[in-house]
Write a structure and sequence with these properties.
By secondary structure, the chain is mainly beta. It has strands at residues 2-17, 31-53, 60-86, 89-100, 113-114, 118-119, 123-133. The model has no long low-confidence stretch (mean pLDDT 89).
């Protein structure tokens, strides 16, 4: 089977800094973050050359599912940190655990990959790193 997808995603959320900060502290740009995100993806996909076996009557056939439209929603729990390595130069990372709101029914045709989410399982892990400058 061959899978291809085309679409867009949107993700929004908030982070909470668990470190106490003050203006006179030289480490005021450092942060230990926990956060939450909501994500959605609207996309279409093709699943071609799928071999379908008929266990009741016997035999098999090749099927193609083309231009199938799908929408997926998920939430993410985020943990990360950000450190000021030089004046206003920041390095950071975060780990995100992503969960779909609605799981696929067994036996149905569903997308192998969802833009923005990744492989379409019930949960995925992701890692991001950042290099930034504070103006």
């Amino acid at each position: 089977a061959v899978f291809s997808t085309n679409g867009m995603f949107f993700r929004a959320g908030m982070d909470l800094n668990l470190l106490k900060t003050s203006k006179d502290n030289s480490f005021s740009n450092n942060a230990f973050l926990v956060g939450f995100r909501l994500g959605t993806s609207s996309f279409s996909y093709d699943l071609t050359n799928v071999l379908v076996n008929d266990n009741y009557w016997g035999g098999s056939e090749i099927r193609n599912y083309e231009n199938v439209h799908a929408n997926k929603w998920w939430y993410e729990v985020v943990v990360g940190m950000r450190v000021e390595v030089f004046k206003n130069v920041l390095l950071g990372w975060n780990v995100r655990n992503k969960h779909l709101f609605k799981a696929e029914k067994g036996g149905s045709v569903y997308p192998y990959f969802t833009p923005g989410f990744g492989f379409t399982h019930s949960a995925n892990w992701a890692f991001n790193y950042t290099v930034g400058y504070k103006f």
